[in-house]
Amino acid sequence: LGHEDEPFSYLLASRDGARSGGWRVVAPAQRVRHEMIFSACGASGIERRTVSKRDAERWTTAKRLEWGDLLDEHPED
User: Fold this and answer.
1) CA distances (Å), origin 66, targets 15, 16, 40, 60, 74
2) Rounded to whole angstroms, how far apart are CA atoms 73 and 43?
3) Who's near 23: CB < 8 A, 6+ residues apart?
4) CB 3.0–4.6 Å: which of 5, 7, 29, 34 could bond 1 by disulfide?
């Protein structure tokens, strides 16, 4: 997408506290063969995170993710 179609910042706020330890999706996923590649924001900044079709449980969950959703609570890779 062009830069005018992409949101470039957002803020999450909660009175109950935020869930930490995960990665938030910040752009649409790219599908490459048997993988989905996400741009995600975590404690260390924005990184590319990959979900392989071999991990059936994560793959099924990843197919439904949208911007702002939690990619992983406890990332393995």
Assistant:
1) 23, 23, 11, 13, 18
2) 12
3) 38, 40, 41, 42, 47, 49, 70, 71, 72, 75
4) 5
Q: What is the DSSP letter of 64?
A: T
Burial of 32: CB neighbours in 10 Å, binned 0-12, 13-18, 19+: exposed
DSSP per-residue codes, 4-61: GGS--------SS----SSEEE-S--EEETTEEEEEEEETTEEEEEEEETTSHHHHHH
pLDDT string in tens for the chain (77-residue length): 565 666 656 666 666 666 666 788 888 889 998 999 999 888 778 889 899 999 999 899 899 998 888 887 544 54
| Cβ-contact 20, 43 below 8 angstroms | yes
